[in-house]
Design goal:
single chain; about 250 residues; alpha/beta; Rossmann fold; six-stranded mixed sheet; 12 strands; globular
């Protein structure tokens, strides 16, 4: 449920973004309150993942005008590691493999960085196993090299596992449902719901071009993006309209 406070967690103000001297995002504005779930829907190539990457300060993109404000502070020029430590989390559409680094080691280091203190091996293991059970993951998964040889479903479940353990204040989920079969989708959606229940103030931006994840994770606010611009903002009825009619109305 949305928080009644007037304090916004995230404010994107008239954001324009370029890559290789070509503008890709045009005058993007949206506001997320603590506890709200926002869905950003759009066809392939509409700018959804670009926005996710810009919110996490991917250096491949240049903000040419506008601002990104997080918890009242302008973070437009801050680096991705500073944003992550401040409580912004991005679940990547295509997370990279890191050979030789086991999942448990990566997660313990990430937890320590997020909390600003060294997390003991035992403490990290207890939290890790607790959440792996909730996400229906084999405990041996924690010993495997990060994302190496993972199936699509395993990669996405690992992203949700990170989300749970890092306890962010703002979660950006970039096509977390992409490539999942119905069983994997159910488990991932269950994980997102459990994380949200554990922290009701968590703000979530779900980025997708399908509606099926939103059958499980119900958004408070829905945005439709096409051609690099947000064309319409509304409630959950907008999801049903997209599912029924597609994106033609916003592409013409």
């Amino acid at each position: 449920m949305a928080n009644d406070t007037d304090q916004f967690l995230l404010e994107v103000e008239h954001l324009c973004v370029s890559a290789e001297n070509t503008e890709i995002l045009h005058d993007i504005s949206l506001k997320v309150r603590p506890g709200e779930i926002h869905a950003l829907l759009g066809p392939n190539g509409s700018g959804k993942s670009t926005l996710a990457n810009v919110l996490m300060a991917n250096p491949s993109y240049q903000v040419t005008s506008g601002k990104i404000i997080y918890k009242g502070e302008d973070i437009t020029q801050l680096s991705s590691d500073v944003r992550a430590k401040a409580g912004i989390f991005l679940a990547f559409q295509h997370p990279e493999a890191i050979p030789g680094v086991p999942v448990h080691q990566f997660l313990r280091q990430a937890m320590s960085a997020r909390r600003g203190m060294d997390i003991s091996i035992l403490e990290a293991r207890i939290e890790l196993l607790e959440w792996m059970e909730k996400l229906e993951m084999d405990p041996d998964f924690a010993k495997r090299p990060l994302n190496e040889g993972f199936s699509g479903g395993e990669r996405k479940r690992h992203e949700v596992l990170q989300l749970a353990l890092l306890n962010p204040e703002l979660a950006i989920l970039d096509e977390t449902d992409s490539g999942l079969d119905i069983d994997a989708l159910r488990i991932v959606a269950k994980g997102i719901t459990l994380v949200k229940e554990a922290d009701p103030k968590l703000g979530v931006l779900v980025i997708t071009h399908y509606q099926r994840l939103l059958d499980y994770v119900k958004p408070d606010v829905v945005h439709v993006i096409a051609g690099g611009s947000i064309k319409e903002t509304g409630g959950i009825d907008l999801v049903a309209e997209v599912d029924k009619l597609g994106y033609d109305r916003w592409l013409n």
